[in-house]
Amino acid sequence: MPPTASAPPVSAPGAPEPLSAIVRRLRRQAGLTLQELGRRSKLSSSALSKIENDQMSPTYDTIQRLADGLGIDVAELFIGRAGNRTGSRMTVTRRGQGVRQRTSQYTYEMLCADIARKQLVPLLTTIHARSTAEFPALVTHAGEEFVFVLTGTVTVMTEHYAPLTLESGDSCYFDSTMGHALISAGEEAATVLWVCSRVVPPLTA
Fold it and tell me: HEC profile for the chain?
């Protein structure tokens, strides 16, 4: 490394701005009504209203749709600001200092959120869901996903395969367009390293 190179930025700790407030602020900054953002993100305006008023906890699929509808990186919905878009990028997240957002089914800790337009979205995820009944439907979106179980027991529910049980140290890789959900099957909430690919360009219409 050249002697003039600066140290990589470190993800800042601290409580994040609520996702509901971030969505509302970014929508208004973009000059979009609920109906307009709904058309762009392929979500109903009533669902968007519930999200903005913290009355509904969005799935990762919904968060991705919102990011695409707003024309931003999904990380911006976690950290509330645009990430680094320059070349030769590098960032570090120290233990416990990722940006957290809680949904009904999972608690996501987004790692290395300072870099925008990443091809991979790494998430340290705690799985709270115990049944597919806790999901409106199996989640489906473009891309591919890798899951590595750190603690606990996880059941991978998918649209086309029998339920798959993973223990600590096990991993799996699957097509995100196939309906899927992760469920904690042990006594304690499971934790996984969850890596999603980002292959969908932002919507422009």
Answer: CCCCCCCCCECCCCCCCCHHHHHHHHHHHCCCCHHHHHHHHCCCHHHHHHHHCCCCCCCHHHHHHHHHHHCCCCCHHHHCCCCECCCCCCCECCCCCCEEEECCCEEEEECCCCECCCCEEEEEEEECCCCHHHCCCCECCCCEEEEEEEECCEEEEECCCCCEEECCCCEEEEECCCCEEEEECCCCCEEEEEEEECCCCCCCC
Report the alpha-carbon distance of residue 105 to residue 110 in Å, rounded. Answer: 16
CA 169 to chain centre: 22
Q: Give residue-wise pLDDT tens across range 104-128.
A: 899 999 898 887 777 888 999 999 9
Q: What does pTM read for this prediction? A: 0.68
pLDDT in tens, 71-96: 888 878 877 766 555 555 788 889 98
Measure Cα distances from 79 to 15, 18, 58, 111, 142 in Å: 10, 9, 16, 11, 22
